[in-house]
Amino acid sequence: MSDEIKFNKKELQRLICEGNERELTFLMLYWVYEQDAFSNLVIKKADKIAASEGRKLDFARAMLYGTLTYTYSIDFLVRHITKEETELMDPVSRTAIRMAVWQIQFGNNIPSYAAVDASVEITKKYNHKASGFVNAVLRKFADAPEEKRSLDQFKPNLRVALKPEIFGILKKDFGKQGAFEIGMALLEPQHITVRFDANKITQSELLKELSSENISAVKGSFIPDSVEITSGLNGLENSECFNKYGMFVQGQGAMLASLVADPKTSDKILDCCAAPGGKSTHMAQLANDKVSIISVDVNESRLELIKDNCMRLGLNSIETVLADASKLAENDKIANKSYDIVLCDVPCSGLGLLGRKPDIREKFSFDGLDELIPLQYSILTEAAKLVRPGGTLVYCTCTVNSEENQKQVAKFLSEHESFHSVSIEKYLPEGMYMDEDRQQSISNGMITLRPDKDKCEGFFICRMEKDRKED
User: d(Cα 282, Cα 255) in Å, to the nearest integer?
Assistant: First the structure.
């Protein structure tokens, strides 16, 4: 029965050894759709097994992320062509049909019969009674004229595989065309970006050394101390370069937040919601490890990730503290102190990460957003209490939603007269996309990175400073 499909390492190993990437992908999709697993975690487990067997999972990865990315449009097309509702299907049928439709509609040169036959056989194994139904639905879909299956004839949100709730948020903030352009950018393949320690190697030298280890990379789109991995990612963490040059897998938006924070030697820094330590370690590297950083997280196992990363990077300036960032005043190790820089990368809707975390497309809800907004504000206001007079408060998110970004900042500044936003122009790397609206935003201390304009994840950063003399 479908409710008995649990994670089984031995089964994954068997499928990987046999090269059965379709059934492997079916299982990973099932866990994400039906058991709330995270796609990045399930593919990471599969990759680890594959590496031990000397195999790669390029096709499985493409199917997994492709199917998750296009789920909303896939469900619409199935309903449009076959009159069947995926939400009314049993979990096995739903998953098998979605996976096959992605191959037929969006895969590159995948024969329809191969996609259909494989999904039917998979259904026989996991829910035998449903195999006839799955076969009928997929045959009808595959036999439909291509023009009937084309997304170009439908609304913009369907063309970019975004449900109305998400597209509506983008449309409200960026207009219909802007929302569509962002949506299109989020459909493009997302390369993993890696930060390196510029004190140890130049960007051009690193690219050459990575190439010598069969890892292809290009320059980051705007952060000078970053590269984008275009192939060979699975070998990155085991490469000589990774540890030798202080490399850290991190988005360019997150890197920019550390540049905007602008840490200096001897600064005392508080990094809220810090795990796995990307910004903490970046700020430490920027200040040559001559700072004092308190990295806070509410999850003890995630604090271990920070410690591990500090050890790997040879950094000694970071101390980890287990604490709830929305209740900092209750922690004796943090409260009653003041910091030169307090950075808050708060929990958010993650709409800027849709390209790398396609699960968000399906799992996003307004109810979840309504819970996040007050949490974000409570973290920001708690953090503000610990900024010294003349100190810096940096607020950032990995979303492009103004409700979580500009409106949170506006509310905070209206209720905290001792803080003011400051221009961040001098902290930005050269060559960034610039227009009149962005220039105005930058002068007000804020920047929203757009996937379509900046060729990176969506991200928001605001720098505020506290008056030197309190009222």
Answer: 7
For 262, list phi and psi in degrees, rounded to 5.
55, 65
Among candidates 296, 256, 259, 278, which has minimal Cα distance to 458?
Answer: 256
DSSP one-letter code for 200? T
Q: Is the dihedral of CA 443, 444, 446, 452 positive or negative?
A: negative
Radius of gyration of the chain from its Cα atoms, rounded to whole angstroms: 24
* Chain CA centroid to CA 53, Å: 28
Q: What is the mean pLDDT of the chain?
A: 94
Q: Point out the least confidently predicted range of 4-18, 152-166, 275-289, 311-325.
A: 4-18
Measured between alpha carbons, how far is 431 from 376 in angstroms, rounded to an integer? 31
Start-to-end CA distance of the chain, whole Å, equals: 66
Res 278 pLDDT > 80: yes
Element at 466 (helix H, strand E) = strand 459-466
- Which alpha helices (H) appear in 53-128, and where do they start and end? 58-69, 71-82, 91-105, 112-126
CA–CA separation, 266 vs 281, rounded Å? 15
Task: Specify the residue for token string 């950075």.
Answer: 343
* Residue 154, SS3 per DSSP: coil
Among 113, 74, 80, 95, smallest CA distance to 25 is for 95
Q: What's 428's DSSP letter?
A: S
Q: How many CA atoms lie within 13 A of 272 on its CB side?
A: 35
Q: What whole-number distance in Å separates Cα of residue 257 and Cα of residue 251?
A: 10
Q: How far is CA 66 from CA 100, 233, 329, 369, in A?
A: 11, 18, 44, 25
Amino acid, res. 345:
D
